[in-house]
Design goal:
Blueprint lengths: L18 H4 L2 H6 L10 E8 L5 E3 L7 E4 H13 L4 E6 L19 H12 L4 E6 L21 H18 L3 E4 L6 H11 L6 E8 L6 H6 L2 H5 L15 H13 L3 E5 L5 H11 L3 E5 L1 H12 L5 H15 L3 E4 L2 H9 L1
Parallel strand pairs: 1-3, 1-4, 1-10, 4-5, 5-6, 6-7, 7-8, 8-9, 9-10
Antiparallel strand pairs: 2-3
Helix pairs in contact: 3-4, 4-5, 5-6, 9-10
The structure holds ligand PBG.
Length: 339
């Protein structure tokens, strides 16, 4: 039972008039419990081959796939307004996709080149990567598939380990396993330790749900067509569950995750709060592509005010217990906060 006795000292009306404190900006500001800052904002980018290329993502207005040279320009812009970390998602050619997903750990792969060029250009900006096989698999799943069409766990983990090591070797500060295979955090942590990458942080997509809000992302990386009508319910969490998310978070922490993430964001803030209260560890959420698309669509129609609704959305993540939010709005929000 929650103990409500500590609320009673405030008394009842008119001894207590909650509107007194809300009357002026100064007293509203004094009692603000949560304050959104640029440090809360983590910017994802879609990276493509080529030079001078910016290719818009139709279902994500304002988001472009960037060639590495353009990525450097954008990353500098968000770094300058205080965004601490960016996340890279390579958009690979169909020719780079094979059943064994060996493209995932190619030394000279797109992701690996993007990491090392970013670290060379902006050494103080944190760089995180996505550890999962979907950009490299012909079927758009996050792992290796057997003849029965099942995504194999332990075989996939072996490839994920090689992928994570290749990211660390290229200079990634944080690796982000987003695949939801069992035991992958422990396997990656062991391999990083063994190879001398003890400083590489792991932000695990610990509570990643089998969500329909990832649609626009799958368009952006070209996985939607490959995936077709298939879903990821044999490895991502059922949206009906939240105890299960606690078990996933506990396992990833035990296996060596430094930070944990809940994904998607807004529809799962109850899970964020449970994670923060239960584990008291660095906790993050992913405001995913579909959430971004909904916001942008309503704003484009003039139905919502973009700036105030976006700031309110981001503040809600902080209030729910997030130490940071991965959001396609990160750069814009940090810019607004700086104005
Ligand atoms: C795949 C991955 C996905 C996202 C991040 N990494 C999609 C998926 O699981 O199918 C979704 C991000 C978003 O929707 O913004 N490893």
């Amino acid at each position: 039972m929650t103990d409500h006795t500590h609320f009673k000292y405030r008394g009842i009306f008119p001894a207590n008039r909650p509107r007194r404190m809300r009357k002026d900006a100064f007293s509203r500001h004094l009692m603000a419990e949560n304050v959104l800052t640029a440090k809360h904002l983590i910017q994802p980018y879609f990276v493509i081959e080529g030079t001078g290329k910016r290719v818009p993502v139709p279902s994500m207005p304002g988001v472009e796939r960037l060639s590495i040279d353009q990525l450097l320009i954008e990353a500098k812009r968000v770094f300058d307004v205080g965004v601490p970390l960016v996340v890279l998602f390579p958009v690979t050619d169909d020719s780079a996709k094979t059943a064994d997903c060996r493209g995932a750990y190619a030394d000279n792969g797109l992701a690996q080149r993007a990491i090392s060029e970013l670290k060379a250009a902006l050494p103080e900006l944190g760089v995180m990567t996505d550890v999962a096989l979907d950009p490299y698999s012909p079927h758009g799943h996050d792992g290796l598939m057997n003849d029965a069409g099942y995504i194999m766990n332990d075989e996939t983990v072996e490839v994920l380990v090689r992928q994570a090591l290749s990211h660390a070797k290229a200079g990634a500060d944080v690796v982000g396993p987003s695949d939801m295979m069992d035991g992958r955090v422990g396997a990656i942590r062991q391999a990083l330790e063994a190879d001398g990458y003890q400083h590489t942080r792991i932000m695990s997509y610990a509570a990643k749900y089998a969500s329909s809000f990832y649609g626009p992302f799958r368009d952006a990386v070209g996985a939607a067509a490959a995936l077709g009508k298939a879903d990821k319910t044999t490895y991502q969490i059922d949206p009906r569950n939240s105890d299960e998310a606690m078990h996933e978070v506990a396992a990833d922490l035990e296996e060596g995750a430094d930070m944990v993430m809940v994904k998607p964001g807004l529809p799962y803030l109850d899970v964020v709060r449970r994670v923060k209260t239960t584990f008291a560890v660095p906790t993050f959420a992913y405001h995913v592509s579909g959430e971004y698309a909904m916001l942008k669509a309503a704003c484009a129609n003039g139905w919502l005010d973009e700036r105030s609704v976006t700031l309110e959305t981001m503040t809600s993540f902080v209030r729910a217990g997030c130490d940071g939010v991965l959001t396609y709005c990160a750069g814009d929000v940090a810019q607004w906060l700086a104005e």
